[in-house]
Amino acid sequence: MRLLKQFVAVLAVAFVGSQAIAAVEGNAWLTLALGVLTAVAAILVYAWVVRRTERRSPTEVSRAGAGARIARGALIGVGMFAAVIVNIALIGGYHVNGLGSVSGAVALFGFMAAAAATEELIFRGVLFRVVEERMGTWIALLLTGVVFGLMHLLNPDASLWGAVAIAVEAGFMLAACYAATRNLWVPIGLHFGWNFAAGGIFSVVVSGNGESKGLLDTTMSGPTLLTGGDFGPEGSPYTVAAGVVLTGVFLWLAHRRGHLVPRRRRAVGVEPATATVS
Fold first, then answer.
1. Is 98 strand, coil or helix?
2. Which strand (E) or helix (H) includes residue 219?
3. pTM higher than 0.70, yes or no?
4. Which residues pair with 94 in a beta bridge?
5. Which of 57, 98, 159, 224 has CA 20 to 30 A from 257's CA?
6. For residue range 83-135, what is the model confidence (pLDDT) as tens digits?
């Protein structure tokens, strides 16, 4: 029941925020403001509903060190995507034609902030965390990663391969990031840095959602197998490889820090205790 309550609470904020952002489409500064407001509201609502349903302090979104952790995650996300773009450029698949749109980047900053915060709260803060408590880290990582990938089949230029790629390079990686850090700030920052780098800086298609107008005016060409085609670079094997490497690093850190949760096992062959009367 608590999973449902937490899920619905954050989803409601995400829905209202997305509708508000859609209503001001074309106004970069309002999109920025509404996107950041949606992200903040989602975090506050998540903290509130966790307190109400679990009777505990939501330490995973503790304010202490939040800024530094978000920045650290964002740097990892931007660096990871930059490495992918460099590899695609080396095979002639990515071209910079000049400067792009500052207003487009501003709008994408707000949009990506809302998307990163709400998706991480739903998938890692609620689904992964609750499933992990009952089934352990490995099953939770697998299940929530697959669901995260399948969700992207709803995007306009989605493909089955794109969904598989997202499950591996993002769903598994971000769950492993949460397992390693045990806070939601780093995954939120990583998710935001990745998405903003893709759309807001390098101006490429993000998860099959169409072209982005960011800081650079760019074009992509070459074999779909390597560039990701209509789905964007997230469908490239370079991206999948980068995601697998980071997933491995995060899981190694989680193991080293003792953060991996084993699967619960029911006791077998244990007779129930019976009261005796003396």
1. strand
2. strand 216-220
3. yes
4. 220
5. 57
6. 999 999 999 999 999 999 999 999 999 999 999 999 999 999 999 999 999 99
